[in-house]
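Lab notebook, bench 4. Still working through the backlog of constructs that have no structural model yet. Next entry is a single chain of 132 residues. Request: give me the structure tokens for it.
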Amino acid sequence: MDGLGIFMAEKWVNSVVSVKRHSKRVLILNIVLDSGLLNVPTIYASHSGKLEEEKESFWNEVFHLVSCLPQNEMVVLAGDMNAHVGSCNVDRDGTRGGFGYGDRNADGSRILEFADGLNLVICNTLSMKSSW
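Model written out:
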């Protein structure tokens, strides 16, 4: 069974305005901070073995939800994207940093297009990873 969960420190629980489940793979957590409202869309993307139609439908749903959030509110997209954006950074200036890993796959290309279309940055590519 697919599903999502969110863990947070107890000190932040009273700042939660809402948790809205949009599907079994998408929910949005809203938190009030001193600087405004933080929207945390949390996703579990379809993995590479799923049909293209299912993956396209999923990313269209997420794109619509994120693009409908008010522009004056903060957005942090979290979850399992099930893709590799790769280490090459020559084609998506500003969407990611230079510290990706390995080769890009087709789902990684989809994520780069998604981030580019919403002016988002893939933050885990902004700094070098330490060894596990």
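Notes after review: The mean pLDDT is 85. Residues 10-125 form a domain with the Deoxyribonuclease I; Chain A fold (CATH 3.60.10.10). Flag for follow-up if needed.
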